Amino acid sequence: MDAQSRGRADEVDPADQWVLNPQTGNYELRLSPSGPESSPSAGASSRRSSAPGRSGSAKRDVPGQRDNRRGHKAPEDGAPGEGRRKRKPKASRKKKVLLWTGGVMGFVLVAGSAGAYLLYQHFNNNLNTVDVGDAGNKNATSDGPVNILIIGTDKRTGKGNEGYGDQGSEGHADTNILFHVSKDRTNATALSIPRDLVTNIPECPTKQKDGSTKNVPGESNVRFNTSLGQEGRDPGCTMRTVKALTGLDVDHFMMADFNAVKELSTAVGGVKVCLAKPVNDPKSHLKLPAGVSKIEGEQALAFVRTRHSFGNESDLDRIKQQQQFLGSMMRQMKSDSTLSSPTKVFSLANAATKALTVDSGIGSIKKLTSLAQDLSKVDLKNVTFATLPVIDNPADGKVRKTVVVDPTKAPQVFSMMKSDISFTEVKKKENAAKDAQAALLKGTRAPASAVRVQVLNGGAQPGSASKTLLWLQNSKGVLKSDNGGNAPAKLADTTLVYAPNQADQARELADLMGLPASALKPGTKDAVGRAPMELTLGADFKGAGIPIAAPSKAPEGIQKVEADKSVCAK
To answer: Which of 51-65, 263-277, 486-500 is modeled with the greatest confidence?
Structure first.
């Protein structure tokens, strides 16, 4: 709709005026045939506007302001004017910007259909960036899996947030979601990490406010949420903590405070949530009836913050309602009512970029767009929100203030994520994995006594090679084995390199050790004489006798929900 048809030509919404044509790659001015209009070539070069963003922004060209000079006549009878581009078919409106935003205090991913992204240069002014050094990936995209850490802080910034959070705090890692996207971009897992998880925080080099670099010492047996803000720790420290905890590399982070939930839920026109019972919580100020409600602004923030309205009033139960809110917001972002409204899209993009602090690897609209397009293939039905399996911290006694990692279930979750096994397509992935394993391991096996192997440590815990050697010799009868010491380089994954004429030995050793098909690396030349196979224990190696292959299904009792499903908070 153009400005004249709305009756307020002097209050033009830039989002209503310019769209990007995916066929030409150019921004085009969308004009009504009946309204006065200017030549795009003349108007685009002469119009100047103050960038809507932060105060004091420099003037810059911004698509969206129309030339409404008197005397500039519209073409008669609806004929195209000189320099005017042909109007786009109505059906193409559904291919406008897709702002895929999910966020509990900062879950923001911008994704769009190819070539149909509406962004303005001034959005760069909204973004804050942090240099996390080698904690992250300097490249916005990757050919492999992508891991993005979403951090929501409890820092009391933003209008109306003075009464929330810890007064005077630099902000903690209050809400944490490791968003893992598979290599083939068919599925994703959003793993919530409880803030009260007791873990170890590694040593962390950080850039301080004065520009200097401070090496913050690590700590043992402390709450996860202290990995940010405390002792001068930056988001890179939280990224390093997550890597140490899960074994997964963290490529990027996105962080925001309380305003993200308020502004994004308002920009999208409200988020639907479902309650199994009415709620009236005086602490969070959440007051909602049973059933479905649409919430935004302060009410949305109250919903994701309340701890006393659902379940056993723990942080683990609050994570459930946060995941419900996230899934609902993501569904709303992808709805036709959002995608067909340029005004909503513009408001969402503006609110999202204002709410974000990101690493320098994605610290521009161009880089965010590149990341968004890379991840845009993931369907919501294949996005799973899960919670890190934990147990009560034995050190707390009866108080139950904190939790620790479940030693049995958590490693299975990490292994599934690392192997790109979807929580929503487990059967499909399980069959594919079995087929691959069967094809590789099909054939004869040598007896254990005939297996020749040299064991090297390439990133596993110190002493792993010698322990594995003893286990193979004493428990499995692989007597023709020796210790090769440390490998030339550290590896993330355990590998078994063998010659074609050693395939029967490789199959036997893979069975004995529980190696996945991906660990077997066949050579091209036959081994000569008594040359052994080479087994290099990588960072994924957990101990002799512990299978490395990822489980084919999620652990029993794990807390999870699919993003495309609506559930009611209890």
So the answer is: 486-500
- Spatial separation of the C-alpha atoms in residues 14 and 55, rounded to whole Å: 18
DSSP state of 424: S
Is the distance from CB of 143 to CB of 246 less than 8 angstroms?
no
Which H or E element spans position 240? helix 235-246
Answer whether 348's CB lies under 8 Å from 338's CB.
yes
Beta strands in 160-298 (DSSP E): 173-181, 188-192, 198-201, 204-207, 213-216, 219-223, 252-256, 271-275, 279-281, 286-288, 291-295
The single-letter DSSP state of residue 379 is -
Cα–Cα distance measured from residue 280 to residue 271, given in angstroms and rounded to the nearest whole number: 19
CA distances from 146 to 3, 131, 459, 563 (A): 42, 19, 22, 18
Q: DSSP character for 394? A: G
The C-alpha angle with vertex 419 and arms to 415 and 422, in degrees rounded to 5, equals: 95
- Percent helix, strand and coil across the chain, each to the nearest 5: 30, 20, 45
Instruction: Report percent pLDDT > 70 for the chain.
Output: 71
Count CA atoms closer than 13 A to 549's CA, side-chain side.
18
Per-residue pLDDT band for 7 (boundaries 50, 70, 90) equals: very low
Nearest partner of 266 among 109, 103, 479, judged by Cα: 103
